[in-house]
Specification:
Elements: E1 3-6, H1 10-23, E2 27-31, H2 50-53, H3 56-59, H4 62-67, H5 69-81, H6 90-100, E3 106-109, H7 115-119, E4 124-126, E5 129-136, E6 142-143, H8 145-149, E7 162-166, H9 175-187, E8 190-194, H10 206-209, E9 213-218, E10 230-233, H11 236-246
Parallel strand pairs: 1-10, 2-3, 2-8, 3-4, 8-9, 9-10
Antiparallel strand pairs: 5-6, 5-7
The chain binds adenosine-5-diphosphoribose.
Adenosine-5-diphosphoribose is lined by residues 32-34, 37-38, 43-46, 49, 56, 110, 128, 195-197, 199-200, 218-220, 222, 235-236.
Length: 247
């Protein structure tokens, strides 16, 4: 029977999460954009999210890349520039500490700013790629970030197709990363899902494939119908801070 905790009950819930974590032999953490908002990176679907202002098909899809490169380029240029000076928040460092202490096996993330790696996690599966890594969509050759900033064409094939190594709407996830992440999630005995609306396929299937205990930490109650054992409605940073105190 799932338990939903919010408000002042959070301490109780975090106590339960701490005991699950201590008991677990293999824990995986799955994160979404809600893990990065406390580092001042907007998410996508809450009230100030990107997709509340912009239609993703216009700027973050294969159609936009092929049919309106200048708008595509402008959008990603703006998103990458907004990352200047952005650093992990305390919650990222707590997750990195959990890996250092051998309490979690890996982090599976939908986020593309790379903050888990910057915070010190070694086993990170970036299912949607990394926005600061650039390649040519024509010949797949890696390209420099400054060439993307300058709006240059590909230096090896000349195509006007430099793009970030992120998964656009209409593209499939990187096969090996996906396979490895699915393997970890299917074999873990505790999956902690943090800061995601669970709206986007196929990542939104992962919590259903976990065979152990599953916990959902989000600042709005999403994922109705998911059989989470524990739902903690609160901010990622606050819940992780309380969790660290109980370990
Ligand atoms: N703490 C906890 N939850 C938070 C916080 C926070 N500080 N801030 C936001 N949230 C919650 C929001 O309420 C929302 O339910 O995180 C969730 C983020 O959901 P989305 O914005 O849909 O982000 P995400 O689930 O990661 O989106 C998946 O969609 O557009 C694509 O590629 C993009 O990777 C992204 C994918």
């Amino acid at each position: 029977m799932e338990k939903v905790f919010k408000g002042k009950e959070i301490d109780l819930a975090v106590g339960e999460l701490a005991s699950l974590l201590k008991k677990a032999k293999k824990t995986v953490i799955l994160t979404g954009a809600g893990m990065d908002t406390e580092s001042n990176i907007p998410d996508f679907r809450s009230k100030n999210g990107w997709w509340k202002k912009i239609d993703p098909r216009m700027v973050a899809s294969t159609e936009s890349l092929y049919n309106d490169y200048s708008l595509f380029h402008e959008f990603y240029l703006m998103r990458i520039k907004l990352l200047e000076g952005i650093v992990p928040h305390e919650g990222h460092y707590i997750i990195a500490d959990l890996e250092k202490r051998g309490m979690i096996k890996s982090v599976v993330t939908q986020n593309v700013a790379g903050l888990h790696t910057v915070a010190g996690n070694q086993n990170v599966y970036e299912l949607h790629g990394n926005i600061k890594s650039i390649r040519c969509d024509g010949c797949n050759q890696g390209a420099k970030l400054e060439d993307f900033f300058a709006g240059k064409d590909c230096t090896s094939c000349g195509a006007r197709a430099l793009r970030p190594n992120v998964v656009l709407f209409g593209e499939t996830l990187p096969p090996q990363v996906w396979e490895d992440a699915v393997g970890d999630i299917k074999s873990c005995d505790l999956l902690i899902v943090i800061g995601t609306s669970l709206e986007v396929y196929p990542v939104n299937q992962l919590p259903l494939w976990a065979r152990g205990k599953t916990v959902f930490i989000n600042n709005e109650d999403r994922g109705a119908g998911y059989p989470f054992d524990l739902r903690i409605i609160g901010k990622a940073g606050e819940v992780l801070r309380k969790l660290q105190e109980k370990l």
